[in-house]
Structures are given as C-alpha cells and as structure tokens.
Design a protein that fits this description.
This protein is mostly helical and 186 residues long. Helices cover 65% and strands 0% of the residues. The chain has a single domain, classed as AhpD-like (Up-down Bundle).
C-alpha cells in the first residue's frame, strides 16, 4: 500500500512519477542515458547491472522490471539474470561483466568499498573507464531508485507477465518515452 496518494493501480516508479511529473522527466532521462542510449556496454548488460543491484537491495519492483527488460535485450527468457542473481561469479557472462558486477555490488553496499584492485581487475578484463564509470553510476542510481520505490511503498505487482509486457515497450523505446501523461494529484 503506497504511503502517499498516488494514482491507484499504477505500479512502481510510474505511480511516483505521475505524482511528481517534474521529478519524472529528469529521472527518466537519467535512466535512458544510463540504460538505453548508445554505449560500448550492451543494453542487456546495463539492464543486468540494474536488475542485479535491485536484487541486492531487495527491491522487487525494480528487480522484476529490469530483469524483464534485460531478458528482452538478451533474448534468453531470464536465464542470465537468474544466474547472476544466484551467483554473479559463476554466471554465464563475460569476465569483464563479472568484474563490473563486482564493482556494482561494492557500490550497492557502500561506494567507499570500491577498491583500486576492483578497478584494476575490470581494466584487466577489458573494461574502459567509461564502462567502469557507467557501472558505478548505474549501481548508485539504482540504489536511489530502489529506495524511492520502496520508501514510498509503491505498488509491486506479483504477475510476471505484466513486467514482460512493459519490458518489451521499454526495450524498444527506452525510458524517456514512458513519461506519465497523468496530472499531479490535488
């Protein structure tokens, strides 16, 4: 049950964005730049980081949402996300992704937990400074998004089909295209 008067039946962050459209615009643009814009990390890899961090934060809405989008991009019915959440170190992802996921997990715990050896490992596995930067920023941003959604008690549907349906649209059009068209409640 949401802690504030958001539009009824609108799930997750979308209800919060409908409540404060002026917040929705910059946060949606941030998500679009981090997860959907052109990058040397694939959209699936970036969504995987978002889903992983959301899982570590126990934010079901964001985890389910971004796991579904990652699966659309990866085309694997969720097997990669499931494997990463179960054990990122043995998951079927590249050594570079494992190093970036390790950095993301450290950021999730505390940004100061990132060590020079973590950065060196990512570089040794082929990560560029931009990819390291983006992994850190995705992890940090999703800590904020997760706390935003859970801190206001946003609706978290349990039906996986709804996440998959929405994910296809987001995977194709990005995040800036999903801004709410609802008015601010009075």
């Amino acid at each position: 049950m949401p802690h504030i008067a958001v539009p009824e039946g609108v799930p997750g962050i979308r209800s919060l964005f409908a409540f404060r459209p002026e917040v929705a615009q910059p946060l949606s643009v941030l998500a679009d730049v981090l997860l959907h814009a052109e990058s040397s990390l694939s959209r699936g890899e970036r969504e995987l980081i978002a889903a992983y961090v959301s899982s570590l934060n126990d934010c079901d809405f964001c985890h389910f949402s971004h796991a579904a989008v990652a699966s659309c991009h990866l085309g694997d019915e969720g097997s990669t996300v499931t494997a990463v959440v179960r054990d990122a170190y043995s998951a079927p992802v590249s050594s570079k992704m494992k190093a970036l996921l390790a950095i993301a997990a450290r950021v999730q715990r505390n940004g100061r937990d990132v060590r020079e050896s973590d950065i060196a490992r990512a570089r040794a596995e082929g990560a560029t400074d931009i990819e390291i930067h983006d992994a850190v920023l995705i992890a940090a941003a999703f800590c904020m998004f997760n706390r935003y959604v859970d801190g206001l008690g946003a609706l978290t549907p349990s039906d996986a089909a709804g996440y998959r349906d929405r994910a296809r649209h987001v995977a194709e059009h990005g995040y800036a295209a999903i801004l709410p068209q609802l008015s601010t409640p009075s």
